[in-house]
Every structure is written in C-alpha cells, then in structure tokens.
C-alpha cells in the first residue's frame, strides 16, 4: 500500500521556518544559513510531491523515495517542535529567548541542534538530488510559503495600553491562589467570542507579581492531606531545590520540568505511580526511586548534570524508558526490569558503554542515537528483541549481537569507526540497513532465512560481503561501496528489486546473474560499465529498468553490435528510464522487440538526436518523455501519433 504524503506537515514546517521564535533561535544557534537552505530544499521537493504521489503506486523506487521523504519530514517537524518547546518553557519570546540562550545550556543546545539540522538538511539534499533521476516534472500544489501566517502570542503586554481589566484580573488571581481546599487544583477557563480580550486578560494574570512570587518557590512539601492526588505537574520553578512527597497513595503521574535549581529527587513509596517525566532540570545529579511497583513509563530529558542512572528492582513494571539530552550521563544501570520492552537513549554524548544484562528478557525495541563517546554495546540475552537501531555513534568500533531469535529489524547508520558487525543467529531478521560506516571493511551474515530487505550504503572501505542462505530476500540495495571487490552470494531466486549504485562493474554482474526473478533494476553511476550485453538477456520477469549516469555505457547501434539481443530477452519490460548517458545517440534497435513497453523516458543525454521509424511498432507505448536533450529533433511526428502522453522539452 502506497504511503500518504504529509503535505500539511511540510507546509507547517515552512511556516515554522519563518516564525519569529525560530528566527530568534536560529540566530542564537548560528544556523540561519542551514535553516534557510533546509527551507529552500523543502520548497524544491514540494513542487514534485503531487507527481510522486501519483507514481508511487506503480513504481517501487518512487515509493521508497516517498518513504524517505516522510521519515525526514517527521524528523524536521520534531526538530522545530523542540525549538518551540525550549522557547515556550522559558517563558515566552523576545527577552526570554536571550535569557535562556545566555545560560549554561547554550553550548549543549548548540551542539545538539546544530548536529540535527545538518543531518536533516543532508538527508533532504539527497532526496532533492534524486528528483532528476526520477524525471519528476514540477507541478504546483496548494500554496506553501515561508512566513508567519498564523497568530502567535506570548507573555509580553504593554500595561499602559490596557484599561478596565483590573477587576477581572484580581478575581482570577484570587481563584488561583485560594488555599481553603487543598484537595482541588484550580483551572480557570476564559471564554467568549473573538476580540473581547481573552488573551490580553490571560497575559495580565500571567505577569502579575503575586503569581510570579510562586515561581520563586524553594521547597515543595505535599503532606498526607492530599490522599486523592493522582496527577502532579511542577514546572518553571527556577529556585525549587527540594520536592518532598510524604504520602501519595493514588499519585499516578508526576511531571517535573524546568526546575533549574533542583539537584536531587527522591521519591518515597508511590504504589500507584505509573508515569514519571523529568525534563530540563539542569542541576539535577541524583534520581532515587524507592518503591514504584506500577511505574511503567520513565522519561528523563535535558538533565545536563545527571551523570549516572541506576534503576533498582523496585520498578518491576517498567516497560518504557527514554533518556535524551543528558550530556554528562556516563552510566545507565538496569538491575532488574523484567517488563522493560522499549529503551531509547538519544543525545547522551558522554555515555561510553551500555550493558544490558539478562534482567531485561522482555526488551523488544532498543534505539541508541547520537551518543558520540559510546564505544561498547553489550547485549547478553534478548530473546524478544525485535528492533535495534544504532545511529550516529561515531566512536562505536564493534558490535557483537548474541542470538536474537526475534530480531526483525537492524539498522546501523553513521558509525564512523565501526569495523566489525557480528550476528550469530537471527532467524526472523527481515530488514538490515547499514549505512555511512566508513571504517567497515567486511560484513559476514549468517543464514537469515527471513531476510527480505538488505541495504548497504556509503561504506567506503567495505571490501568483502558474504551472504549465506537468504531464500526470501526480495530487495537488495548496494550504494556507494566503491571498494567492494569480493561478494559471496548464494542464488537469489526471490529478489525482485535491485538497486546498484557506485559499485564496480564486476560486482554488478555478479549480483544480476544470480537474480533471475528481478522485476525492478536500477543501475546508476557504474563508471566502468560499457555494455549491457552480458547480463540482462535472462531477466524475463523484469518490468522496470533504470539506467543513470553510466558515462562510458554505449547503448547505441554499431555495425558490429549484438543485433539488439541485449534487450530481446526482456519479455515483461514495461518501463525504461535512461538518464545521463553521454554516448546515447539513438535508441538501441533491440527495443523494437520489446512490445510490452509502456513508458519510455530519455533525460539529460546531450547527444541524443532522433527517434527511429520503428518506434511506431511499439503499440503498447503510452508515455514518452524526452527531457533536456538539446540536440534532439523530431522531424516526423506521425511515428509517435499513437502515444497518448508525450513530453518533449
């Protein structure tokens, strides 16, 4: 089923890039140019989204392109949401932004966000670069523009311009500060039609000195007089140093955020606590949980002074643990977490090792991202681990996985020093992605009977790949592995999609010759390739063929050529795309025998001059595109009169 393109999210991102808050933050981060380029690239991609949406139903490669776009667009949206969250938590725009970015958080924030911006912009650039490969023709979508089109509010209000609201303001403040009913937390709704001044009134209340004094709270003690309290949120208490909960038998959710002076947190027995979130507590060094038998979700975010985290056996119900943006965290120790199913660690740049003992038998998903100092990941026993993702761990040198009988997805991206990946037995592994591992020299995969997708990208030093039996492999991608010289492959009877880009010619033929069931084949940037004669005649099931930027490839007819045999075996071919082939002068005459051909596209072939008379015999041809071929001339249009859709420019 085709992916739905998130048009609205792309539009929202372009709008956010023009907002005042992002403009302030990007100046502080020194990232104005990066974000400007990101916006420009997204605008370019936007012009072809409608075309991509139409074609992804029919073309596997376009469907993959759309999937890549969705992944990066959601990451970009998360990035800008993080910008907005940081700004909002610090109390508004304008002066509040400068106060935050002049604090001790500045260096860490710069590092993390700068890294993420570069990553997202690079991925968007790669997606935009593929537009020419797919011959997308720009088409207008709904209007999208970079700019602040929505209404944005903040806490600043000019007091001299506000008249007649003092009485309403005092009434609301009295309600908020009343203490005669300790078991109820007050919420005041301000309602009315647009233009009455609801927002202005809320701003007046927010800035009142009596409420601002609450933000200077240093000690919070909740006595036993709140036995029914189920949710507690403590945020923006900059001087709070102590949180003391005496008895909270029904407390199920606790959120502590933006308490910059809080140094330690000790929670007593909270028998009903199921969710705990701690974020932006810059001075927090210690988190101690005594007894939380029902705690299922723990989130620790942006606690820059936290150096170690130890979860004892008092949290037997913990199922999800997420730790992000803790720059000084060096140790994570899990003693007993029998129900932990998801562990996410991101942007912990001081974390050096991670050891998960056998006390995590239920772990099914593990993600480690942007842990720059991480050198070791040790998994002892993970019988239920189904998804493992390791990204941007630039110091990780080796990865050894034990028997993971349930592992279905393994992704290793941008681990620059990784030299060894060892998999023992993974009977259910269905997808393996290895990319941007510049030091990886060899890859040996055991028998993976369920492996259906294998992607190896941008591994510059990779010289040897050994694949044992993988009878169900349906998709194989090898991209930009120019040093690959030894490839040990079994027969690939089930491979239907094959992407080969930036590899040696002999490696290309070695793979194609054992892939008899191919339906989709892309050959790109194979600079030593001169002929297709030796390898494609047997591809009788091939439906789509793409040949891009093979500068020495000669497809044109010669007096001593093969008589067009290189294409005669393609009995099922429906789509042929040729781009960036400098030696292409005319269509190979063997194509006249491919009567199943429905789509033919020639792009960026500067010496391509004319169409042969026999093109009229291709009665199934319904779409013809000839783009950016400056020497092409169509002298007789009658020979293509039978083709419904023609684009020539």
Question: What does this 3D model show about the protein?
Answer:
This protein is an alpha/beta fold and 649 residues long. Among the domains are: 7-129; 159-178 and 186-206, no CATH class; 519-649, Alpha-Beta Horseshoe (Leucine-rich repeat, LRR (right-handed beta-alpha superhelix)). Helix content is 22%, strand content 22%. The protein has 12 helices and 32 strands. The protein has a 19-stranded parallel beta sheet, with helices on one face. Strands 21-23-25 form a 3-stranded parallel beta sheet, covered by helices on one side. Strands 1-3 form a two-stranded parallel ribbon. β26, α11 (505-512) and β27 form a beta-alpha-beta unit. α1 (7-17) packs across α5 (60-89), α4 (49-55) crosses α5 (60-89) and α5 packs antiparallel against α7 (106-129). The chain is globular and about 90 Å long. Mean pLDDT is 80; it is low at 91-104, 142-157 and 179-186.
Shape: globular
**What is the assigned CATH homologous superfamily of the domain at 519-649?**
Ribonuclease Inhibitor
**CATH class assignment of the domain at 519-649:** Alpha Beta
Could you tell me the radius of gyration in angstroms?
Answer: 30 Å
What is the number of helices?
A: 12
Beta strand count: 32
What is the percentage of strand-forming residues? 15-25%
């Amino acid at each position: 089923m085709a992916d739905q393109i998130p048009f609205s999210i792309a539009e929202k991102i372009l709008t956010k890039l023009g907002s005042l808050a992002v403009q302030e933050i990007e100046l502080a981060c020194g990232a104005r140019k990066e974000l400007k380029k990101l916006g420009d690239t997204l605008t370019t991609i936007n012009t072809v989204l409608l075309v991509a949406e139409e074609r992804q139903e029919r073309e596997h490669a376009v469907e993959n392109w759309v999937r890549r776009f969705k992944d990066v667009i959601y990451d970009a949206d998360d990035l800008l949401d993080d910008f907005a969250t940081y700004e909002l938590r610090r109390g508004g725009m304008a002066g509040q932004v400068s106060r935050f970015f002049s604090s001790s958080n500045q260096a860490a924030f710069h590092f993390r966000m700068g890294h993420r911006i570069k990553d997202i912009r690079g991925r968007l650039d790669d997606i935009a670069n593929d537009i020419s490969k797919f011959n997308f023709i720009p088409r207008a979508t709904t209007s999208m523009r970079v700019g602040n089109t929505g209404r944005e509010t903040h806490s600043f209000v000019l007091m001299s311009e506000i008249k007649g609201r003092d009485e309403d303001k005092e009434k609301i403040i009295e309600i908020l500060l009343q203490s005669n009913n300790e078991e109820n937390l007050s919420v005041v709704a301000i309602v009315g039609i647009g233009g009455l001044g609801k927002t202005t009134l809320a701003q007046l209340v927010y800035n009142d000195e009596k409420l601002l004094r609450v933000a200077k709270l240093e000690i919070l003690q909740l006595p036993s007089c709140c036995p029914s309290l189920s949710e507690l949120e403590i945020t923006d208490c900059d001087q709070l140093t102590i949180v003391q909960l005496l008895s909270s038998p029904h407390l199920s959710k606790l959120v502590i955020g933006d308490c910059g002076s809080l140094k330690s947190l000790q929670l007593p027995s909270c028998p009903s606590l199921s969710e705990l979130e701690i974020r932006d507590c810059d001075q927090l060094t210690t988190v101690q949980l005594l007894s939380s038998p029902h705690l299922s979700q723990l989130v620790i975010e942006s606690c820059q002074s936290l150096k170690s985290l130890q979860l004892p056996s008092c949290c037997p119900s913990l199922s999800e643990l997420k730790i992000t943006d803790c720059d000084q965290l060096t140790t994570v120790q899990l003693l007993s977490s029998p129900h932990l199913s998801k562990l996410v660690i991101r942007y912990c740049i001081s974390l050096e090792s991670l050891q998960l003992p056998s006390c995590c038998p239920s772990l099914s998903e593990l993600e480690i991202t942007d842990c720059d100092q991480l050198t070791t990941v040790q998994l002892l026993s993970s019988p239920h681990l189904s998804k493992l993702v390791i990204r941007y761990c630039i110091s990780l040198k080796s990865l050894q996985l034990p028997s993971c009988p349930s592992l279905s997805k393994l992704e290793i991206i941008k681990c620059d020093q990784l030299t060894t990946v060892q998999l023992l037995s993974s009977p259910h592994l269905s997808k393996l992605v290895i990319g941007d591992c510049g030091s990886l020299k060899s890859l040996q995969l055991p028998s993976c009977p369920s492996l259906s997708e294998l992607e190896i990208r941008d591994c510059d030093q990779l010289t040897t790949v050994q694949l044992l039996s993988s009878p169900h492999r349906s998709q194989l991608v090898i991209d930009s592995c120019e040093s690959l010289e030894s490839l040990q492959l079994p027969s690939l009877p089930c491979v239907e999609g094959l992407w080969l880009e930036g590899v040696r010619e002999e490696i290309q033929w070695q793979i194609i010759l054992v892939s008899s069931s191919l339906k989709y084949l892309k050959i790109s940037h194979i600079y030593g390739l001169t002929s297709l004669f030796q390898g494609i005649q047997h591809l009788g099931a091939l439906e789509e063929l793409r040949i891009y930027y093979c500068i020495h490839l000669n497809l044109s007819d010669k007096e001593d050529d093969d008589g067009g045999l290189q294409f005669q075996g393609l009995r099922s071919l429906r789509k042929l795309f040729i781009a960036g082939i400098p030696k292409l002068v005319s269509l190979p005459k063997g194509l006249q025998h491919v009567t199943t051909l429905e789509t033919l596209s020639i792009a960026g072939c500067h010496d391509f001059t004319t169409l042969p008379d026999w093109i009229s015999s291709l009665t199934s041809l319904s779409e013809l595109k000839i783009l950016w071929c400056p020497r092409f001339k169509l002298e007789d249009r009658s020979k293509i009169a039978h083709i419904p859709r023609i684009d020539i420019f």
